[in-house]
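Subject: Probable nicotinate-nucleotide adenylyltransferase structure
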Amino acid sequence: MKKIGLIGGTFNPIHNGHLYIASEAMEKLKLQEIIFMPAGNPPHKRNKDILDANIRSEMVNLAVRDYSGFTLCDYEVNKEGYSYTYETLKYLKSIYEDIEIYFITGADCLVDIFTWKNVEEILKLSHFVVFNRPGYPLEDLLVQKEKVERYYNKEIIFLNLLQMDISSTDIRNRIKNNSHYRFFVPDNVYSFIEKLELYR
């Protein structure tokens, strides 16, 4: 059975922190592939200014194409309507014959998991993997992890990673304020942003 990691997000833009998380997850969980899934129309960010999905997808493609085992899937970008995780997991199960999916997400998602759609199905279709993020105390996360595990009777995998305080929001703000940001994103993504004058 092939072990696949799934990392979704708006990737607005993708940055080096995303690649670090994927690399650590691949090593620690012994995964054979990491799929990056840019969100097309995420329901939890309906009122936010998000760059066109195809442009975000192209940035992800530029970021991951030179890394062995990292792949881009544009299912959610091409999907009509809102993108829900349980639907994405069902889709991946339908196109891969024999896979075990590890859904990799941040601490903020663990905190908000009770607001997600069809959580039981998500936990049935995948191993739920959470990594820590700046601003979320470790003790609080472990308490929430136990709470979720008891409620759904399902184990949550926790990755205690080196905290890299890089965010897409900060990068966008730096670009708007003409501050340096090139060391936060892959070189080819930096060139793409500069060429198209994104986030100006």
